[in-house]
Amino acid sequence: MSLTQDQVGQIAYLARLSLSDEQLESNTKDLNSILGLAEQLADIDTDDIEPMAHPLHMSQRLREDVVNEQDQSELFQTIAPKIGNKHYLVPTVIE
Description:
Number of strands: 2
Number of helices: 3
Largest sheet: 2 strands, antiparallel
C-alpha cells in the first residue's frame, strides 16, 4: 500500500496541519516507507511462534506490600470547608 501526495494532503488537512509542497513530498515518502515496513512485517510467518507476555524469560521480583507512610488524612481535612464521615463535601454541580 502506498499513499499519494493528495491522500497525505487530505490526512494533513484532517489533522489540521499546514504542509508546504516540500514537506508534503517528504512526508509522503516517509509514510510510504513506514507502510512498506509494515507490509514486510505482515509477510512474516508467525504460525509456529508462541505469544509472549514479556520478551525475557524471567519472573518479576515482588516486594512485600507494606505501608510505610503515616495516615495524615485528618491533618489534610482540617483546612477543608466541609467534611463528613472522613470525606470531603463539595457543592452539587449536576442535579
